[in-house]
Design a protein that fits this description.
Pfam families: Gal-bind_lectin. This is Galectin. It comes from Paramormyrops kingsleyae. One of its GO terms (molecular function) is carbohydrate binding. The strands form 2 sheets. A 6-stranded antiparallel beta sheet has the order 1-10-3-4-5-6, with no helix packed on it. A 5-stranded antiparallel beta sheet has the order 9-8-7-2-11, with no helix packed on it. The chain is globular and about 35 Å long. It has a single domain, classed as Jelly Rolls, CATH 2.60.120.200. The chain is mainly beta. Helices cover about 0% and strands about 65% of the residues.
């Protein structure tokens, strides 16, 4: 069982004109943390999952989505991993109806499809083995 820390923003729209900026510090013994953006609890358009050591993944970022509370789908793994346990990071997420752009430390930008084609999302959640220092929607 994981004891997740969690920050949830509901019913406050994040639109395609916004930038979502999250600064945090993974716990020293972190296994994983994730950033989810969705229409609601059952329809997550983007899960950006930072895995230090989780299931069979080590130092891997995983992108996926789920619709109607199904299983995570269109899973894309990326071994570019600039995250360090106990070290501050900043993630910037932007999107339009076609794609999400996730900028991680080192000016690395990863694109992931916006499978819902939405330009407004009502749920943002950061959870897992991380301490959030700042959370901004600009």
């Amino acid at each position: 069982i994981f004891a997740f820390l969690q920050l949830t923003l509901k019913d406050m729209p994040v639109t395609a004109t916004n930038q979502l900026k999250i600064t945090g510090i993974p716990k020293l013994n972190a296994k994983r943390f994730s950033i989810n953006i969705g229409l609601g609890e059952e329809n997550i358009a983007l899960q950006f999952d930072v895995r230090f050591e989780f299931h069979n993944d080590r130092n891997t970022t995983v992108f996926s989505y789920k619709q109607n509370n199904s299983t995570w789908t269109n899973v894309v793994k990326d071994e570019h991993f600039p995250f360090e346990q106990g070290e501050e990071f900043k993630v910037i997420i932007t999107f339009d109806k076609d794609e999400f752009l996730v900028k991680i430390p080192g000016n690395y930008v990863k694109s992931y499809p916006n499978h819902f084609g939405a330009e407004k999302f009502m749920l943002v959640r950061v959870q897992g083995d991380v301490r959030i220092k700042s959370f901004n929607i600009e």
